[in-house]
Amino acid sequence: MARKKEQKIEVRGWRLEAWNPTSAQRLASSAFTLTELLVVITIIAILAALITAGAMNALNASKRARISLEINQLGQSIEEVKNKYGAYPPNGMSFQGESNYSGTVVSQLTTSDFERMFKKAFPRSQEPVGLIRRLGGATGNQNPGDPSLLPNGMNSAEAVYFWLGGFSEDTQYPLSGPGGPAFDPTSTTGEVLESRNREYEFDLGRLGPRNDSGVFHDTDNGGQGRYVTYDNPKNTGPARLRINLWRYNPSGSERPYLYFDASRHDPIDYDQNLTGLGQNDSVQIYALKKLREGFSTSNTPAPKDIVFVNKGKFQILHSGLDDAWGSFKPFSILNASGNVNTGDASGVFLFPTGPFTGDVADTLTNFTPGTLESAQE
């Protein structure tokens, strides 16, 4: 049968084609169905999620690298302090009580460390001995100097800025002289951080804790900042001076860097519980430990076989991007049977075996290229 001709209509030079069912069917078949649209939307969502996840991973890696870099820079400055003063700085690594192994009262040990450090670093110092002893954790009345109380001595967070913040060039008064950490608490200007002879170029805006006005938020006013006041050893000036114990946080972090002295003693010399910075009364951050070099894992370790990581030097730690330290719980070096705990649920988290999980996993240090988790064996 002859195919009917397609009708055409001419309107003033325009040609209109009549409706053709075959052409309409072809157009309809080339359009997206609802199912196909949903598939496309799903693919786009997946790609967007992957791109977002990749961007977040890159951002986190950048933040982590920035903190690790600053940890290494702080570590370099600690080395410079050691070269300048002849020893690595101590900190009050005490908690309370006595070691079951050595019977040494911890505050006595750290107090002696501070006294020896100041004698070595500042042999002409006329600073009150009572103040130096208090910084190390000495209790009771301390004279000369009559310093205010500082429970457990300078902790690991406070040690970072104290030792790297700088001291006065006055060889007799490295703490109380100009450029040192002490200031007149009765002065209208208060503490001038820019006046310190810094060993490290701190971003002073990241020192804390601060109140809403930006000044040191001390324990007298509901804050966490600790300080020491003491009798002015000089013949001029106010009767009492004050040292604020600042802490230094990475950019964007609410947790400070921590410094632990690993150069003087082994864990058993301090205490069963080794203190760091307490988030509250029950959570502490501790210097990391390991089995000594050359120890055979086929043997049962004795207390003397447990040493600090980076033995002979120091540790600098930060909680990582989650701003949470996790369970660096108060552990006991010895268990109830007198044997060394090595990684069970109630024992020592030995490096590098761990296990470093949860909030502890992303802890950053000066002795690992990345997190504790990435260094874990």
TrEMBL record:
Keywords: Membrane, Transmembrane, Transmembrane helix. It holds the Pfam family N_methyl. InterPro entries: N_methyl_site (IPR012902), Pilin-like (IPR045584). Residues 207-233 are annotated as: Disordered. The keyword Transmembrane helix applies. The keyword Zinc does not apply. The chain crosses the membrane at residues 37-59. It comes from the Bacteria. PANTHER family: GENERAL SECRETION PATHWAY PROTEIN G, TYPE II SECRETION SYSTEM PROTEIN H. This is Type II secretion system protein G.
